[in-house]
Amino acid sequence: MYGGPPVVVVGNGPVGQTAALLLARWEIPTVVVDAQERREVVGSRSICQQRETLDIWDTVGAGKAIADEGVTWRVARTYYRGHELFHVEFADSSASPFPPWVNIGQARVEQLLDERIADAPLVDVRWGTTVTGITQTEDGATVETTNGTLETPYVVACAGAHGDVARDAVGATFEGRSFGDRFLICDIRCALPDRELERRFYFDPEWNPGRQVLMHPCPDSTYRIDWQVAPGFDLDRELANGDLDRRIRQIVGASDYEVVWATVYRFHSRCATTMGRGRVLLAGDCAHLMAPFGARGLNSGVADAENAAWRIAWALHGWADPRVVDEYDGERRAAARDNLAITSRTMDFLVPQSEQGWAHRRAVLERALSDPAAQAQIDSGKLYAPFRYGDDPNPVVGALHPDHTVRAAARRTSGEFLTHDNLVVRPDGHVVGLVRD
């Protein structure tokens, strides 16, 4: 059993929580530090949790609870100026205990993961602890904080978009662009039984002309609504003069409603020039930022955490050459670049940056009213799927191998885990990792 100092996880959001819980599952202790004084339960934020993300959380005992509390939406409808262009229906997979998508607010996910951490003695959470510096040596890293110094073999930095200290530690810059367009998010509690299992996307509705609106169902009769709004939009002014009420009434009609949360934001498309070097790995928003259409931010961050955790665990237990950790950067940055390419195409369609782009969007939407073939060109957000192997004999770097059962002689290595060839598997045959020679 590993007996050295704990791994330091910077950031106690869902990505950091996942990394710590997975490391604990591999019998590796962690210290999780976060600059906030306590957990803040604010707004829905990242709401769409994908099947493989639920599967990762299930390995630490939280997947079923998250899925049970969430809303499984079955239909995605797309509209243009009041006309439904098409809809897509989602079916459960008989190969998985989880549905394709579950909507549940990030704050509630954090609470459910906190409950698992409370039962994990190998995870030490330290709130109110800001990281001020990270330096590396050949054998580990020194983490300077406002509450003292931590010596650690590895750092998993899940510090969010402002994780400059961690990015500096690996010599990374945060390349990309920011979009000037602004979006309004509201969480609305309202009884709308006709929409409780539907995602709705509206292009150019008469009540938000030239822009779009996205509507998602959430637990407790709550709906997450995103409006693209005009430059200079002022939420306080809209609240004061009644415009927000009028905006919401255009969607919910005369139904009673409650505004649970409202905020204004803009999107970014950025990727760190390296996601890991030496003893420091970047994960989640600290490594990549992307527009939320398609639900790729949190889901890809959880995949980062899973990849980092098993690699660090195998290196520290001596089950693999420590160079196995070096491969994290190539794998997860390839996945990040793929996600960013997809979300950038989405944003180019949703928010064109040129007159030519706007003309193309209008033409596609107009043709789609009568030509089903044009529907394939409409991009309201390609939904997240894990970065997978291709069909050719050469695997794509960073791909997630599809689940399958291994029925062959295997060697037990530690606890419940076994190996066969280069695969790390559970006794039920579920592949949880890959070790290269």
Automatic annotation (TrEMBL):
It comes from Nocardioides aquiterrae. The keyword Isomerase does not apply. It holds the Pfam family FAD_binding_3. Its cofactor is FAD. This is FAD-binding domain-containing protein. Keywords: FAD, Flavoprotein. Residues 6-340 form the FAD-binding domain. It comes from the Bacteria.
